[in-house]
Design a protein that fits this description.
This protein has 115 residues and is mostly helical. The protein has four helices and two strands; from the N terminus they run αααββα. Strands 1-2 form a two-stranded antiparallel ribbon. The longest helix is centred in the middle third of the chain and has 27 residues.
Length: 115
């Protein structure tokens, strides 16, 4: 797996699945006795007209995209998680039987830019 494949997978299993999960929860909270806050959100969402539902889904997409982008900025080292001048660096590796590859190579394209 290379960096581009990693980002494609993140888009699918994190971004897209998160959006679908929130949308499904808004439509119908799952579980035997879902939290009352989720039931209230679902009731509110299901009473919206289609245009307003579309706007809510746009907000969800924006929130998920922004969160994943910010997290990748941290992994890329362009968003600080430490104070001071002597900051560490995060390294993200993919490892399997064939070997180990650095996904956030600082000499290559940033992960957050690939998103």
């Amino acid at each position: 797996m290379n960096s581009h494949e990693f980002i494609d997978i993140i888009k699918e299993v994190v971004v897209d699945d998160s959006i679908k999960s929130v949308q499904n929860t808004l439509l119908n909270p799952s579980g035997k006795s879902p939290a009352e806050s989720l039931v209230a959100l679902s009731r509110w969402y299901n009473n919206l007209n289609d245009s307003d539902k579309g706007m809510v889904l746009s907000v969800i997409r924006e929130a998920v995209d922004t969160s994943v982008f910010g997290f990748l900025c941290v992994i890329d080292g362009v968003r600080a998680i430490e104070n001071g001048n002597d900051k560490g660096r995060l390294s993200l590796y993919y490892e399997n039987k064939q070997g180990k590859i650095l996904l956030n190579d600082f000499d290559e394209e940033f992960l957050h830019d690939m998103l």
